[in-house]
Design brief:
Blueprint: H1 3-18, H2 23-32, H3 37-50, H4 55-66, H5 72-81, H6 86-94, H7 100-115, H8 122-131, H9 136-149
Helix pairs in contact: 1-3, 2-3, 4-6, 5-6, 7-9, 8-9
Length: 160
């Protein structure tokens, strides 16, 4: 290994020590630091070979950790921005429990209602969920559940 390759490997390992990253993130970072394309690809191949760089594991952990506060649309967007392949994103999302997104949205809504002492308008709740990246289908299910169970005390405007 020449000096440039060692420096690139050291930097890549330092970055991976701080947090997991995708292949694309490391590739961009090493490129910005001025390492050649050949050195960058060599380092990335070695890291993948050793098991330190795996986009599938990254995507799976990303979704598991962030699903409690984000909808699937937002998670897909974040993963795409990090350079994860669309096929891999679809595969990871398909592994999830079909009700995982609904359960996450419901937990967020109940937490919000608890903080607001039960007084939270339904349209505002729908907007909150939409900004978090939840689908309209999930938002509608949550709103129907809330109105059916009469959880919302401030339901003067029941549109959702």
């Amino acid at each position: 290994m020449n000096k440039e390759t060692k420096q690139a490997m050291t930097l890549a390992c330092k970055l991976l020590t701080a947090r997991r990253r995708t292949r694309r993130e490391l590739e961009l970072h090493l490129g910005r630091k001025g390492f050649s394309l050949e050195v960058t690809s060599l380092v990335l191949e070695k890291l993948e070979h050793y098991g330190y760089l795996d986009d599938k594991t990254f995507a799976r952990l990303w979704v598991e950790q962030r699903l409690a506060k984000r909808g699937l649309a937002r998670l897909k967007s974040e993963l795409k921005a990090k350079g994860v392949e669309p096929e891999l994103i679809s595969e990871i999302i398909a592994e999830l429990d079909p009700d995982a997104e609904y359960n996450a949205a419901m937990a967020l809504v109940l937490k919000k209602l608890q903080k607001a002492a039960g007084h939270y308008p339904l349209p505002r709740m729908a907007g909150f969920l939409q900004r978090r990246g939840f689908s309209y289908e999930i938002i509608g299910r949550v709103c129907r559940t809330l109105t059916d169970s009469r959880v919302l005390l401030d339901s003067t405007d029941s549109r959702c």
